[in-house]
Structure formats: structure tokens, C-alpha cells
Design a protein that fits this description.
alpha+beta
């Protein structure tokens, strides 16, 4: 017998659309959803996914660093001449 769980449309001050629900039920995860609101009132973006026990979890996108690589600081030229 499969475990029975409920998935509520309203989650952390965000209403899940029909498309979000279809993605979640078909593939076990959604695309990025913007505008969740945490306990402290701060908003954030995340994907929803089921864990192995079919509980909803957040999957956070990886941080973008611009060009994909952190730039290293250039060494300062030595103004003193070595003798």
C-alpha cells in the first residue's frame, strides 16, 4: 500500500499553480518558484521536491558568480627595484 500524503496549494505564503502541482506529481520536483516567504519575513526562491518519504523539501539554485569563475586579484607591481 502506498503512503498517503497531502500536498497543499498554499505553502510558505505562496500559492502553487496547477502547473507546479503537475510538475511535482509527475517528476517529483518543480522548476524554480519565486517568492516564498520564510518565518522572518524574508523572501527566497527555490524548487520544491519530494524526499524519499514524500515530504516536501526545498532545492535551492546554485549561486551565480558572473562569468562562472571567480577572478583572482592581480598582484601589485613591485615599485622598488631589486639590487
Amino acid at each position: 500500500m502506498l503512503p498517503q500524503h497531502a500536498v497543499y496549494r498554499h505553502f510558505l505564503n505562496k500559492e502553487l499553480t496547477e502547473k507546479h502541482m503537475q510538475q511535482l506529481l509527475k517528476s517529483g520536483k518543480t522548476r524554480l518558484i519565486k517568492g516564498f516567504q520564510g518565518k522572518a519575513g524574508k523572501t527566497f526562491d527555490a524548487c520544491l521536491a519530494f524526499d524519499k518519504n514524500y515530504n516536501l523539501t526545498f532545492k535551492f539554485p546554485k549561486e551565480k558568480t558572473g562569468s562562472g569563475e571567480k577572478s583572482k586579484p592581480k598582484p601589485k607591481p613591485n615599485s622598488e627595484s631589486e639590487e
